[in-house]
User: Which sequence fits this backbone?
């Protein structure tokens, strides 16, 4: 009987340990405002002395200002991450405003560290993401004002304004620093270049097509 109780106790401890490893660690203090001047290298940012913390460390102004959409893709992103609000450090959350010119796109990209939940504030958007190999399912939907859509962490996704007026969306992300990898920029604009032979074979196109794309990014 004693052996069985000891075994069950070990199993319970193992389950608790696995659950604790599956989530971000809980804060051991009220906050850890990022200290941009700190030289300590760590996963996240060093904490400012709590006695030096001000209300401004938890605030950001300007999300009402439209982003610049005068670019090749016709969209502008205004980030509100730990760089803009130091008080987000260790809290595992951030947000962005996305503005879209008519038929503008937020190009194919992925957030390596965050799930995204997006709300349409103005206009209509076509949104979608692609599941991982081997299915590569394209899951897509048309969103109107007030609609909400989720992009799972790490999956390639996009948005496109399908209206003739400007569109606006607000998105929350489950990381203080979600990161973004724009697929076209990463593949064709890497420094140094990825071999044109490799890209031509991967995309099953002629090398001249790869060279042309690399000049654009």
Assistant:
């Amino acid at each position: 009987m004693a052996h069985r109780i000891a075994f069950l106790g070990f199993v319970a401890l193992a389950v608790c340990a696995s659950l604790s490893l599956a989530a971000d660690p809980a804060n051991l203090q009220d906050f850890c405002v990022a200290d941009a001047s700190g030289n300590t290298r760590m996963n996240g940012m060093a904490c400012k002395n709590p006695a030096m913390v001000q209300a401004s460390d938890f605030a950001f102004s300007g999300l009402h200002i439209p982003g610049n959409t005068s670019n090749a893709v016709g969209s502008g992103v205004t980030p509100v991450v730990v760089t803009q609000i130091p008080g987000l450090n260790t809290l595992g959350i951030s947000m962005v405003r996305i503005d879209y010119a008519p038929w503008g796109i937020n190009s194919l990209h992925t957030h390596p560290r965050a799930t995204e939940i997006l709300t349409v504030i103005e206009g209509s958007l076509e949104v979608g993401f692609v599941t991982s190999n081997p299915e590569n399912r394209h899951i897509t939907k048309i969103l109107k004002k007030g609609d909400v859509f989720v992009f799972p962490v790490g999956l390639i996704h996009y948005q496109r304004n399908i209206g003739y007026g400007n569109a606006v969306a607000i998105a929350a992300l489950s990381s203080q620093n979600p990161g973004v990898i724009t697929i076209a920029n990463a593949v064709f604009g890497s420094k140094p270049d990825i071999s044109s032979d490799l890209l031509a074979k991967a995309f099953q196109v002629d090398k001249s097509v790869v060279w042309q794309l690399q000049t654009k990014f």
